[in-house]
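Project channel, design review

CF: Before we commit to the Streptomyces formicae constructs, I'd like one complete example in the thread so the newer folks can see what an input/output pair looks like. Taking alcohol dehydrogenase.
RD: sounds good, go ahead.
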Amino acid sequence: MDGGCAEKMLAPADFAAVAPDGVAPRATAPLNCTGVTTHKALKDTDVRPTQLVAISGVGGLGHLAGQYAKIAGATVAAIDVTDDKLELARELGTDILIDARKEDPAEVLKRHGGAHAAIALAVNE
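CF: and here is what came back for alcohol dehydrogenase:
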């Protein structure tokens, strides 16, 4: 939507939502872009409960993808190379943590029966 980052904008009701009581609208702002991006990625996988979803990169997008996958009932594997991001994934209930500095993500996923879907949200410097 044009003006989506503005202080105020006019939008159709289908594009708006009310923040739940006790949740500041500012806290929900990231859902407008990162939330929609990761939700669409997960939706396109057609993941079902108990299926394994691998999420590579647990930063601003990846942690949301993991939470959406958990809500969908999926088993979530988080892949990253940064301790604090892997810790965040653990705190958010990720089932399988993979530190790609120490182990081969493909081998770990194979040990768990393979992933139904892989969502790549990592950057390459």
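RD: helpful, thanks. Helices lie at 25-28, 34-45, 62-71, 83-91, 105-111.
CF: The first helix runs from residue 25 to 28.
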